[in-house]
Specification:
Layout: E1 5-11, E2 13-14, E3 26-27, H1 30-47, E4 53-60, H2 68-81, E5 89-94, H3 101-109, E6 114-120, H4 124-130, H5 136-149, E7 154-160, H6 167-179, E8 184-189, H7 197-203, H8 212-227, E9 232-235, E10 238-240, H9 247-253, E11 258-261, E12 266-269, E13 272-275, H10 279-283, E14 289-293, H11 296-307, E15 314-315, H12 323-330, E16 334-337, E17 340-343, H13 345-348, H14 351-358
Parallel strand pairs: 1-4, 1-11, 2-3, 4-5, 5-6, 6-7, 7-8
Antiparallel strand pairs: 8-10, 9-10, 12-13, 13-14, 15-17, 16-17
Helix pairs in contact: 1-2, 6-8
Amino acid sequence: MEERIAVYIHIPYCLNKCNYCDFYSLKIDEDETRAFTLALLEEIKHNSSNIKAKTLYLGGGTPTSLPTPLLKKIIESARQSFSLPISAELTVEANPETLDEEKLNMLIQVGVNRLSIGVQSFNDDLLRFLGRIHSAEKARSAIRKAKELGFENINIDLLFAIPGQSLDDWRRTLEETLSYEVTHISCYSLTFEKGTRLWKDWQMGKIQPLEEELSAEMFEEAHRMLTSRGFAHYEISNYALPGYECRHNLCYWRGEPYLGLGPYAVSFFPPHRLRNPSLKGYLKGKQAKVEEVVDEEERKKERLMLALRLSEGIEKSMLRENPLVEEMLREGLMEERGRRVRLTLKGMLVYNSIVSNLL
């Protein structure tokens, strides 16, 4: 039986660049979107002869910033070209500002069965600070409309540790998110990535990151509130109701091969990691280039790093009797589950230092 893999499509356009974003994204140019779509359809066709998909994920950027007919054409082409099974997970990321009834109906019509909405906060002051183009009310109406039209599997992206955010405000945001009865919630700690507007303001002394202690309290509060309402904390930043874990992202975290399409998208076909050119080169028809050859030792390190993000953890044998593991078990940073070990909540808070110590 032919192996199916995860397929990712990068849509590089946004209506506006958020202050904290370091993903490859560009302000949308309506005149350019048609040329981009044609180039993407050509890349899909080029890869369709030897790839079958088990999941399809459109991210960005903001996929829903594309004109509805172009986005429809891309999804239909990818579904057909990669023989995506009817029951397979098909995710599209969206900004609330871009989700009107026409677009939502089209997404349902072409078989999108998982919608990921970038809400970030239900506090308008914090949304302005982040440079988001939508208001809290727009986010509310987008979620309601998506549910009303028939979306059953909805993820809400949230940010915490935002300068100016209080623990009470974070609780209110989580409570409101739960009130919409969505199936998946992603809670990301705001980071100041080099080159972003946020990072520049921090370097100039205009803003300061939230205190680590308060950030840790917010992380723990999300865990407490969401798990008490039936959500499994299945990955450091992700919570899902049973059966609604993001199958596509699990492919990454489990170190499986995947195909990335679109400008600057990454593919992984062990031992090769490839990257597509930026939009300028992509529109000229330039091909993906091998960015890295991942040898077996490096691959084991990556699998360890990614597996420790998951609540399923990692086989003890992969840690090769590492003396640090025993120390972390004693300190309550890790726990044993049968033949596997995983991070505790306390361990998740210091994930980066644990991984760097183990590697």
